[in-house]
């Protein structure tokens, strides 16, 4: 019999999704006011009076989530706020405050961190939220940043991942894959700089401004939730596209118990993103399916409401439908061949 006490399983062998499933077994004492915990974009706390508080937290580590070779500090600050509040919008809630904890190595100056907080402030102004606290400490090696965001909503306005029904239509805002396209350009320019042996990094980004901006300074889709306030239409489920379309479809499938059919030719991909994929000799569909950090919103909605919602908010496209094929994703290529992916 294998000795569990002495066994060592690498996290990469299990995967973070299954690791989180194991975390669900260790959630402390049950609190009846916590309406939803692990498994949604935010935890949901019942404040009473028909109001709920949504809370989310994000952690970012230098060398894993960002590269300061090509990321200006003020852009980094803006992007990290966007990542946190995007989860709040994905609940159809209104963000109100953020807390930021930073572990800073000595090699970074006061001026650099001031630039970071300039970006934090700019994003907070744009999203109408306050930076209300946090923590600061030293780090021996890398810059590490944690952002916690909170927001509120009426209980009846919340949109969860789990409420889609068979026959609902799958939609996505904006376009997908642009952030990854921007990253590919930045990495290419970094490689060229390293091979040149020059001291200063002067990337040539002419012609790539759109995708590079989507990577460095993404914007959360608060316009979507603003549109919902003007109508009685409610999507049946909602999630932000922070880790790629495939990952978000998997999260919806796990939460709802449904399956999906997606029409790959309908997935919105910008011409700028297609240009980058062509230059890199890569499959642009993979940018859309697996590229992260677009911070668009993926949602399902009953079919009769699609055109009605289009009249209120037109920056979305239909990419598929919800099926009863539990845990399965059918990718329809528009040609004779289509294929099925297990999302569980």
Q: How is the topology of this model organized?
A:
Blueprint: H1 11-14, H2 16-23, E1 34-36, E2 43-48, E3 51-61, H3 73-89, E4 94-104, H4 110-127, E5 130-138, E6 144-154, E7 169-173, H5 178-196, H6 209-216, H7 222-229, E8 237-241, H8 245-256, E9 259-263, H9 271-280, H10 284-290, E10 296-301, H11 306-310, E11 316-323, E12 328-332, E13 338-342
Parallel strand pairs: 4-5, 9-12
Antiparallel strand pairs: 1-2, 2-3, 3-6, 4-6, 7-10, 7-11, 8-10, 9-11, 12-13
Fold and architecture overview:
The protein has helices spanning 11-14, 16-23, 73-89, 110-127, 178-196, 209-216, 222-229, 245-256, 271-280, 284-290, 306-310, and strands spanning 34-36, 43-48, 51-61, 94-104, 130-138, 144-154, 169-173, 237-241, 259-263, 296-301, 316-323, 328-332, 338-342. It is an alpha+beta fold. It has two domains: 4-157, PurM-like, N-terminal domain (60s Ribosomal Protein L30, Chain: A, 2-Layer Sandwich); 169-342, Phosphoribosyl-aminoimidazole Synthetase, Chain A, domain 2. The strands form two sheets. Strands 8-10-7-11-9-12-13 form a seven-stranded mixed sheet, sandwiched between helices. A six-stranded mixed sheet has the order 1-2-3-6-4-5, covered by helices on one side. The longest helix has 19 residues, at 178-196. The protein is globular, with a radius of gyration of 21 Å.
Condensed summary:
This protein is α+β, with helices and mostly antiparallel strands and 344 residues long.
Along the chain, the helix and strand elements come as HHEEEHEHEEEHHHEHEHHEHEEE
**Strand elements, count:** 13
Overall tally of structural domains: 2
Work out the helicity level.
25-40%
**Spans where pLDDT lies below 50 across 5 or more residues:** none
- Describe the biggest sheet? 7 strands, mixed
For this entry, what is the oligomeric state of its chains?
single chain
* Beginning-to-end CA distance, first to last residue: 29 Å
Q: So, CATH architecture of the largest domain? A: Alpha-Beta Complex
Strand order of the largest sheet: 8-10-7-11-9-12-13
Mean pLDDT: 93
> What structural class results from the helix and strand content?
alpha+beta
Number of helical regions? 11
Radius of gyration: 21 Å
Percent strand equals 25-35%
Inertia-based shape: globular
At the fourth CATH level, what is the homologous superfamily of the largest domain? PurM-like C-terminal domain
The CATH class of the largest domain is Alpha Beta
């Amino acid at each position: 019999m294998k000795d569990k006490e002495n066994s060592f399983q690498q996290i990469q062998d299990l995967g973070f999704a299954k690791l989180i499933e194991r975390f669900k077994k260790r959630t402390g004492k049950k609190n009846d006011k916590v309406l939803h915990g692990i498994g949604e974009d935010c935890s949901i706390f019942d404040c009473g009076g028909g109001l709920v508080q949504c809370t989310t937290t994000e952690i970012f580590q230098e060398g894993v989530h960002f590269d300061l070779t090509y990321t200006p500090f003020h852009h980094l600050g803006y992007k990290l706020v966007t990542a946190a509040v995007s989860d709040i919008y994905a609940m159809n809630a209104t963000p109100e405050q953020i807390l930021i904890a930073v572990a800073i190595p000595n090699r970074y100056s006061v001026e650099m961190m001031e630039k970071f907080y300039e970006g934090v402030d700019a994003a907070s102004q744009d999203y109408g939220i306050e930076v209300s606290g946090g923590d600061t400490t030293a780090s021996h090696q890398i810059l590490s940043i944690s952002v916690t965001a909170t927001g509120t909503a009426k209980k009846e306005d919340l949109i969860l991942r789990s409420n889609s029904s068979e026959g609902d239509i799958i939609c996505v805002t904006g376009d997908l894959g642009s952030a990854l396209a921007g990253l590919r350009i930045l990495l290419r320019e970094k490689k060229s700089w390293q091979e040149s042996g020059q001291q200063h990094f002067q990337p040539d980004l002419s012609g790539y401004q759109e995708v590079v901006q989507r990577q460095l300074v993404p914007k959360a889709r608060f316009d979507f939730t603003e549109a919902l306030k003007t109508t009685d239409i409610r999507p049946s489920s909602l999630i932000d596209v922070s880790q790629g379309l495939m990952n978000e479809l998997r999260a919806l499938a796990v939460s709802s118990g449904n399956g999906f059919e997606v029409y790959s030719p309908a997935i919105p991909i910008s011409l700028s993103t297609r240009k980058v994929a062509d230059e890199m000799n890569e499959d642009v569909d993979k940018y859309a399916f697996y590229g992260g950090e677009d911070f668009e919103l993926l949602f399902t909605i009953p079919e009769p409401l699609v055109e009605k919602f289009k009249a209120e908010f037109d920056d979305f496209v239909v990419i598929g439908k919800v099926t009863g094929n539990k845990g399965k994703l059918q990718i329809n290529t528009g040609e004779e061949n289509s294929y099925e992916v297990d999302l569980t």
